[in-house]
């Protein structure tokens, strides 16, 4: 793999590093290597590859280690794991998984032994919340929840936690968009005697608008299914870490769990990396225009979107942490669930589907879909109301989207 001697900016690096056309018979773009197993260059090279894979030896700088078996790694994962690194400033390396949940669960299973504690922001994506309740808690991992945006509460929860393995921050929270202070969480974690790892679910704002490692986090975690892939046609997850050793540990767990991203999916995601910033910027511009067009509508009690934050702490975190407000807009409709359902039924352009980050706009009712794992009390506590509709804004012409939302709002109150 050739590396230019000078430092390239991310937009260039993402298209040039980590891929040598000579290893793809001269193809200008990577080939797909679907093989499940790899032929060793010699028995000695095979033994060396196993030593390194099992953690008994470390690869020397620049050493060409033979591939073993595609559950451990394969060329398309290697290319993707190299090419994605420049998108997350501060990252040394990355590991790719076959979904965002695979990335998140592998992270906890790697860094949180039974008896350890996780401190996390709330609300979390419903799947992550369920993972904690259904899998981590029965394994003897204590999960301590802090309301998103409660900076003092997060500091206190971290300071008082025993056997603290991971501090997990999802910011902005899904779907309330409440932001948590990454730098404050990292500062508290660095001061803790256990030196827990700080992981940020950066799915909503990254990799274009928020860079957790620059705020002191150790790892940025993605559902790459969303903006990174950007076309609602694949599942993937990524962890990017400051410290290469953490990625080595994650890959070790991944090899046992068997949840590496498959070659075709790596190839597909690889091709999307160079446009993620372009897509996200256009989606964000559209979201700003749509939010502005809907603000003040009589059927809407609130358009939730970062530029409209009024809480001083939220404004402070937003200004310190995100470059742009992103492309998720949450509407709180006055008529509660009946109004939310009528709105979703009335949409003609935007589709009623979960997920976000694709080039096409999507809308869903989080309380009965993405966050339905939570009890009514939990939903109320984290502010996921009955009238909430989450909009993921795509790259369509924003005037068409705004007109569609307005016609779907007609007659609601
Ligand atoms: C913030 C967030 N994190 C993680 C996930 C899980 O990702 P995946 O569906 O790729 O497993 C999602 C999915 O919606 C999400 O919104």
Question: Could you explain the architecture of this structure?
Answer:
The protein is α/β, with parallel strands linked by helices and 413 residues long. It has a domain at 276-409: Aspartate Aminotransferase, domain 1 (Alpha-Beta Complex). 37% of the residues lie in helices and 15% in strands. It is built from 14 helices and twelve strands. The protein has helices at 10-16, 43-53, 75-83, 100-111, 126-136, 151-160, 182-191, 244-257, 263-272, 276-294, 312-321, 336-346, 376-381, 398-409; strands at residues 93-97, 117-122, 142-147, 164-170, 197-201, 219-223, 237-241, 300-304, 328-333, 351-352, 362-364, 388-392. It has a seven-stranded mixed sheet with strand order 1-7-6-5-4-2-3, sandwiched between helices. Strand 2, helix 5 (126-136) and strand 3 (142-147) form a beta-alpha-beta unit. Helix 4 packs across helix 8 and helix 12 packs across helix 14 (398-409). It is globular. The N and C termini lie far apart (60 Å). The mean pLDDT is 96.
Features:
413 residues; alpha/beta; Aspartate Aminotransferase, domain 1; 14 helices; 37% helix; 15% strand; globular; binds pyridoxal-5'-phosphate
